[in-house]
Write a structure and sequence with these properties.
alpha+beta; about 45% strand; 17-stranded mixed beta sheet; globular; about 260 residues; about 15% helix
Length: about 260
């Protein structure tokens, strides 16, 4: 069987997109997803995303990590899916869609900049050496010295598989501050089990964590990731973070057909 796919990337976080409105994809075949995401023997991607029908919204997002397992929310993936929906003619400049963590609103400009509303963050755990919060996916946020040369995969893996987060683990973000409202971020992603060039829920977590720790007074944070630049904005209301938006480019790379 031949399936048409599309490849998108958001600041280097890359995804295989499949229009699954006619339910053509073998959703329970984790080995197939893993094979398609393999960078040597497949198409190559950090994850695979299905666009499906939803009765209440424009479409549904089903996200798989590159290990083949369905996973929690992916911010950059969500932004790329909005661009994909526009390419398919499902939406124009605004949309509402459903994902594993709930309802999302988004807009897309003519030059491919997508602003995606993320879930509200009701709790931020602040410890001496790190911050933990859930932005649709769980994230450990830790300030480090010499971010450029920091051993991301080694240290990220230690924390992800350590006693702190148990069997389910956590994504791990290492951060350095550039100025009053700008931070650089490198992220170890569970499911990929390596550093990725960008993580949308990760930079969202970093922006909120840095505000919660008092490292910035701004409600609009600029994030430099290995694959480019992103922006996160939010409001604080009674100790909660609401109106959270992740903004950045979502770029079509290529399309093709694959035999499965």
């Amino acid at each position: 069987m031949e399936i048409k796919f599309y490849k998108y990337q958001g600041t280097g976080n890359d995804f295989i997109m499949i229009d699954n409105r006619e339910e053509i994809f073998f959703k329970n075949n984790t080995k197939l997803v893993e094979q398609l995401c393999d960078r040597r023997f497949g198409i190559g991607a950090d994850g695979l995303i299905l666009l499906e029908n939803d009765k209440a919204t424009d479409f549904k997002m089903v996200y798989y990590n590159s290990d083949g397992n369905q996973s929690s929310m992916c911010g950059n993936g969500g932004r790329c899916l909005v661009a994909f929906a526009k390419q398919l003619g499902i939406i124009e400049s605004e949309t509402t869609f459903i994902a594993t963590d709930g309802l999302h609103h988004a807009t897309i400009s003519d030059n491919g900049i997508v602003s995606l509303q993320m879930k509200d963050v009701n709790a931020v755990k602040i410890e001496e050496d790190y911050v933990f919060l859930d932005t649709g996916s769980p994230h450990h946020v830790q300030l480090v010295d010499d971010l450029k040369n920091y051993p991301i995969k080694e240290k990220g893996s230690e924390i992800r598989y350590g006693e702190l987060y148990g069997q389910s683990g956590s994504n791990v973000n290492f951060v350095s501050q550039n100025d009053a409202d700008t931070f650089s971020v490198r992220t170890y992603e569970r499911g990929v089990e390596d550093e990725t060039l960008s993580c949308g829920t990760g930079v969202t977590a970093v922006a909120i964590a840095m505000k919660a720790k008092g490292k910035t007074t701004s409600n609009k944070i600029k994030l430099n990731v290995e694959g480019g630049k992103l922006e996160v904005s939010f409001n604080e209301k009674e100790g909660k973070f609401v109106d959270v938006f992740l903004k950045g480019p979502a770029t079509f790379v290529f399309e093709g057909n694959v035999e499965v």
